[in-house]
Amino acid sequence: MVDPFAIVRPYLQPITHSLPPAIQEPLTALLTPKCYQILIDDINPLASPSCIKLAVSKAIGIGIIAASSVVKIPQLLKLLNARSAQGVSFLSYLLETTAYAINLAYNFRKGNPFSTYGETALILIQNVAIAVMVLTFSSKSSTRGVPWPAIFVAGVAAAAYALFSPDVVSSNTLQLLQMATLPLNLASKVPQIAEVQRAKSTGQLSAFAVFNYLAGSLARVFTTLAEVDDVLILAGFIGGAALNAVLAGQMVMFWNNSGAPKEVTKERKKA
């Protein structure tokens, strides 16, 4: 077999062999010593297809984590600019936040590589912020002066503390909760899908967030297959990807719909 790296190897190895510890150590931890030796020191990826698969998975995982740091920012900005939560389901974000909190604690306590679930923490924080805005801009949030946004944040904080504490939530209980995130994750998409279908409009729903969610969930199926031997986590990503595809389809279908309330239009006609 012809080695395509034979020509460039003599030129690249002096560089890879002299990488500073600040680069060597993180890469070794990320790729494992064996794959670092094959891919970086020897520059011989064809010697180990499994190392190529691992490197691709790590690259995708890091890319997902980086993208997740801003994936919900457009949604936040849309809510802030519109001062309206039209088309955005609080129930959907409540269920998704619950599932993400459980998933984050499960992965952390199982010791899974951070590159396979790191975006969960970043999206969780953004979800909480969006849910608070939805409550704030919703007429229901001010009913009888009840501070629903503050209550919601306090509830999330208390749940997170319990999930990350083995003394409060045992490993067996956490595994059962992780099993429950499969239907919970799927259910979290249903209210949003139903809201868009009812209104025939995406309202203040962000297309950037929807399509990035779809791409991220599909990529996570690959990274989970490559790095995490856990059927529960894999099933969650497959199910999530399927419903994200439905939501993305709705985004395309109702792209040009203004979503103006029909009641208002009727009243104007009568006037």
Account of the protein in words:
With 271 residues, this protein is an all-alpha fold. 73% of the residues lie in helices and 0% in strands. The chain contains twelve helices and no strands. The chain has helices at 9-16, 21-31, 33-41, 49-68, 73-82, 90-110, 118-137, 148-164, 171-199, 207-227, 231-253, 262-270. It starts with 8 loop residues before the first helix and ends with a helix. 33% of the residues are buried. Residues 260-271 have low confidence and may be disordered.
Keywords:
single chain, 271 residues, mainly alpha, 12 helices, disordered C terminus
Outline of the structure:
It contains twelve helices and no strands. It is an all-alpha fold.
In terms of topology, how is this protein built?
Elements: H1 9-16, H2 21-31, H3 33-41, H4 49-68, H5 73-82, H6 90-110, H7 118-137, H8 148-164, H9 171-199, H10 207-227, H11 231-253, H12 262-270
Largest sheet data: none
Structural class: mainly alpha
Query: How many angstroms separate the termini?
Result: 81 Å
Shape: globular
**Number of beta-strand segments:** 0
Task: Calculate the mean pLDDT score and round it.
Answer: 85
Radius of gyration: 23 Å
Poorly predicted spans: 260-271
